[in-house]
Amino acid sequence: MSDTSQAVFRHIPIRDLSADQLLALSQQMKLSLSKVDMLAVQAMYQEENREPTDVELEVIAQTWSEHCKHRIFNAKIKHTLNGEEEVVDSLFKTYVKAVTEKIWKDKPDFILGAFVDNAGFVRLDETRAVCLKVETHNHPSAIEPYAGANTGLGGVIRDILGAGKGAKPIGSLDVFCFGPPDVKESDLKAKDVIHPLGIMRGVVRGVRDYGNRMGIPTVNGAIQFDDTYIYNPLVFCGTAGVIPISDIAKEVKPGHWLIAAGGRTGRDGLKGATFSSASLTTDSHEEDQTAVQIGNPIEEKKVADFILAARDKGLIQFVTDCGAGGFSSAAGEMLSEVGGEVWLENAPLKEPGLESWQVFISESQERMVMAVEEEAIPELERLAAMFETELCRLARADGSKRLKVWHYGSLVCDLHVEKLHEAPRREMLARWRSPAVKEPKVALKPSSWTETLKTILGDFAIVSREPIIREYDHEVQGNTVLKPLAGASGDAPQDGAVIRVAGSPHLMAMGCALLPELGKTDPHAMGRAVVDECVRQLVAVGADPDRLAILDNFCVGNPDNEQELGALVECTKGMAISALAYGAPFVSGKDSFYNYFVTDEGPVSIPVTLLVSGIGIVEDAAHVVGASLRHVGSKICVFGPTKRGLRGSVLGKYVSGCGLEAPPEFDEAEALERYRKYHGLVKQGAILSTHDVSEGGLGVALAEMAFSGKAGIRADLDRVPAEAGCTAAEVLFGETPARLVIEVASEHMEAARQAGLVVIGESTREKWLHLTYAGNTLIDASVAELKAIWKSGLTPYY
Amino acid sequence: MPHALLIKFPGTNCDAETARALEAAGFTAEVLPVALLDESALDRTQLVVFSGGFSYGDYVMSGRIAQLITKNKLGDRLRKFVDGGGYALGICNGFQILAQMDLLPKASLIHNASGRFMCRWVPLKKNGSKVSPFLSALPEQFELPVAHAEGRVVTMAGDAAGYVKSGLAPLLYGADVNGSTEGIAGLQDETGRVFGLMPHPERFLFKADHYDPDWSGAEQGWGYYFFKGAFEAMTA
Known about the structure:
The complex is a heterodimer. Chain A is α+β, with helices and mostly antiparallel strands. In chain A, 32% of the residues lie in helices and 25% in strands. Chain A contains 25 helices and 33 strands. In chain A, strand 1 and strand 2 form a beta hairpin. Chain B has one domain (3-235): Class I glutamine amidotransferase (GATase) domain (Rossmann fold, 3-Layer(aba) Sandwich), CATH 3.40.50.880. Chain B is built from six helices and eleven strands. Chain B has helices at 15-24, 64-74, 77-83, 93-98, 159-166, 222-235; strands at residues 3-8, 28-33, 47-50, 87-91, 108-110, 118-126, 141-148, 152-154, 171-173, 184-188, 194-197.
């Protein structure tokens, strides 16, 4: 063991190394820096006429990592679309930031912050803002599902605590992509890979144990199952918070103390940022265990209570969390403008003997760093004692523009703050050509449409997530007005969640959408459809369509594969079109690359996966709308046209031929008009219940509404507003975006008709689903029978 | 106006909404971090509340560490407080803590029969004719949400049936929720002033919080009447 009272660091000679030797050094130290990056580092030290310390190289590697710097989203990409070449000068600037900036001009009072802080903010009411952040924790969850997901949620909760001068977390959402739970063990083509069942159980329990212990309701989420996620499961964790608007702005000034609060620093979570910026291999399961952090939600609960109390007393000037890169990124970010000095020996450790670089970059959990005035420290110490959390004086801002890190009197790192943040820009190649239609995996010959509906209701894409939802406390804080499961028996699916915000007249809606199946063949259409679905969910549950904010979270396989990067470019373009049309700004986002795995049979990549999550303002509790039928004898209406095309649909997995060559079209401008009219009806109290038409199409949407247990549905699908030439399959199971199914009481039908809703049937006393089309009965089944299939789909596996 | 003191342990996380519910029913409510707890705190209150959450993480037996720390800080002062007419309430994790303090009939709360954490609404029914201030404003049957992994009441053989018979188990599940013996959802002492239950009344304060938007059982959520009953008993 090293001496515990002196710095342990070394100088690493790099000035005389060749490019290949530099790359070898990067690989040996697991820095995840490219040859170009290493050459830039070398030039920096040649200029300073000295050799770097290991601490400095680690700090640079963390700071420049894909995880922290999003260098692919900022890269210059030469993209070829179906043979035509174009240059995308930063995906982020072109398709994310520019969209938000345009919308911001129209909604300056609503958007209160985007991209600069740990979360984006929008106005809730006169004095309060709400914010949302979503992170991924894919690599850790692949090799240690419980701890990976546990700390994934723990980390994003800290993002909210570190948003503004500290926001209060009020709701979480969790989205997973797993391999199918029924995959055969013998089909896993690499050693030490965890079976999807093990991944699913571990991940769900990890989220459960962090969220429940923190007392933050997990109210929203989604799960996708697909073969492509067997080796690279995806785990998205998101948390929303509320903050006084006056506490959003924050600034570190020379003279401020940087106080670390919360958990101690240890060897867990070393190099997580660089680990997540490389692909997984079989060796990862053996070698990279130290990259996975260990969660302790009670430690975080204590620091959360402390931070919020300190904020309310006005003691905090700036706060951020220790996430990827640990102190180096938290202190590095806080001192990035002014510079300052760090004293590593002041950090309380979990165990003695950590080397200097380990203290500085460890991603040990449950740590926050605040900038405070010297006079505030005694009061902070009193609060820390009250909430039983530990404080240390980690650093002090000094205006020197240098990041100086001391460890027991030795200067172990001395970097110019501006140079540290000047990572070389990447130049990349991408191309996209729409692939040919694939034959379906399972050729299903339906004996009847009713049988087809049963098959689809039992598909992993559709089946009830109830066994998992019940493990999450979605009621804690006592504000969950629209719950993930509702209806007369409390077990029917909903489109989103609505949370009351204590003290505010307004409420907050949360929703999320992802459609990776569509992205396999048409990422551009997926980008558009995913934005629409999230927007539509928020509007459906009662949010004002003009007061929404969304987040883009991307997961990509190998970005050095031109086709995969091309899919990302196309998806990003599509997403930007819809967001702009809806006036739904991106206020935050994140990306995760290298989600591919080299199996015995070659590399397996995930399809480009875009999660769009969002928050919306619900003006009044009376506007909250569920997705479960409420009365017998009300009118069942469809709002929005059905178009031809089955590509990317759940049905598309089972059938071949007609309709698979293209996804259905939709028009965002028309959709937004409908959403506004719908919201007008909501405000008039004309809407009883609404369900978005998404995976499984109209057939599944109608069945799910009837799962409320209060009524059945009899409808004539000839009345569905549909493009000429639509087949029964397209009307029943097509997944045209931008459509809603709405239950309206007869007395409000006149207003509904004027708004453009089309009646297709009514709710019946008999709990039966009866759908006709072109003179034939397509669906004829008892709601109880359909519900049993849907409700029990996951129970054998979870 | 009666005062309620909510003791907050590291990991207690239902204190804010419980305080809100108490205030709605007429109490003044004070959340006190356990680091500041001493015997004198009981002098300024009529009701001591152990709220829900995961005190100290509940990594050992639920509520065990919180109970030991409370005992260490208060000794037999809590017993004297109750004997002197004070009220004590434990909800969920608070019930798990209170169940180990020798203030309630002997029982343990162990892992649900399903072995899982469970968040759902449950039917409940009142039992027996014993005076139960916390239930006095509620009808014979009502609903509340539960969210727990260790809510199954077990006792020495025969004790549970005795509690049901004597009315020391004044609150029963209307269906098998977690394998609780005799369906016991809540326990009280002989006086009714000490009450512990697994369901969360503070989570059904508002009518809109029912899962069915057409719910019309009462003007407010059932949880409101839970706290209101106690308030009325204490101000009568």
